[in-house]
Amino acid sequence: MLDRLNQALEHIEGRLDDHIDPAELARTAATSEYHLRRMFSALAGMPLSEYIRRRRLTVAGAEVLAGREPLLEIAVRYGYGSGEAFARAFRAVHGIGPGEARRTGATLVSQPRLSFRLTVEGSSSMRYRVTDRPDFTVVGFKARVPLVHSGPNQAIIDFVRGIDSRALAHLEKLSDQEPRGIVAVCDDLDPSRAEGTELDYYHGVITSAPSPDGTAVLPVPAGAWAVFTASGPAPQAVQELWRDVFTQWFPSNPYRGRPGPEILRMRMSPDHTEADAELWLPVEREQIRT
């Protein structure tokens, strides 16, 4: 998988001054566009679109400083329809406009070319299983919240704290399918998975029972799920589980992510210092291409 991702990176480098089609990148990586965007964001720490933008403006910055071509010609070459649009994007990355940078020979920001390598650390094995599930339903309390890649998501914390404890206890009794108990469900994430983009968050259960008043319903179609488990200090155990799934498990196994909600079941120790986590991700088997 990592070799194919690196081929997609080479494809990007050869087309920085041309249109880059994410669907074509996915074909180069021999995977789906959905999985490519998800894997890239997890491994690179930024959305695919942001990496392409930074690389374009890095190369464009060198041409601005070289001073051999008009700024508008450089802007058009790298996909900007006007000098104003180019100047805004240039300033967002470099902290200075292209005209001023050329006049003063300013120091610019450089986005290095990326390459992905698998690094094996330690000797622990990941605990996982892949299971096929018929369609099921999430029933719970719903909020639209921002995506936070690291650290606590205060919007989710505040939302959960605001749920009536009696309503939550009643909801938990309706759980009748795996993963059992109260679960955290994230759905309708922005394809870029950029920090601050919004998603639907459900605090609820998997159930076949009718939904109580005041709750939201999320139908989930049948499909395969990879289920990962981890135990350890909270919240590090959960954060490290997410990291390892995308940096180790996906690159080493013949599966790719597919659209669908992501489900986390977590049980805390009485003092809230330790956690047992079970992460459910929708997957499909990769098609072997020769």
Task: Write a concise synopsis of the structure shown.
By secondary structure, this protein is α+β, with helices and mostly antiparallel strands.
Structure, described:
By secondary structure, the chain is α+β, with helices and mostly antiparallel strands. Helix content is 38%, strand content 24%. The chain is built from 10 helices and 9 strands. It has helices spanning 2-13, 22-28, 33-44, 48-66, 71-77, 83-94, 98-104, 154-161, 165-172, 236-252; strands at residues 127-133, 136-146, 183-187, 198-206, 216-220, 223-233, 255-257, 262-268, 274-285. Strands 1, 2, 3, 4, 5, 6, 7, 8 and 9 form a 9-stranded antiparallel beta sheet that branches. The chain is elongated. The two termini are 13 Å apart. The mean pLDDT is 90.
What secondary-structure arrangement, pairings included, does this model have?
Layout: H1 2-13, H2 22-28, H3 33-44, H4 48-66, H5 71-77, H6 83-94, H7 98-104, E1 127-133, E2 136-146, H8 154-161, H9 165-172, E3 183-187, E4 198-206, E5 216-220, E6 223-233, H10 236-252, E7 255-257, E8 262-268, E9 274-285
Antiparallel strand pairs: 1-6, 2-4, 2-5, 3-4, 3-8, 6-9, 7-9, 8-9
Helix pairs in contact: 2-3, 4-7, 5-6
Low-confidence stretches: none
What would you call the structural class? alpha+beta
Count the E strands: 9
As a percent range, the share of strand residues is 15-25%
Order of H and E elements: HHHHHHHEEHHEEEEHEEE
Output mean pLDDT. Answer: 90
Global Rg: 22 Å
Helix content: 25-40%
Q: Kindly report how far apart the N and C termini lie.
A: 13 Å
What about the largest sheet?
Answer: 9 strands, antiparallel
Q: What does the overall shape look like?
A: elongated
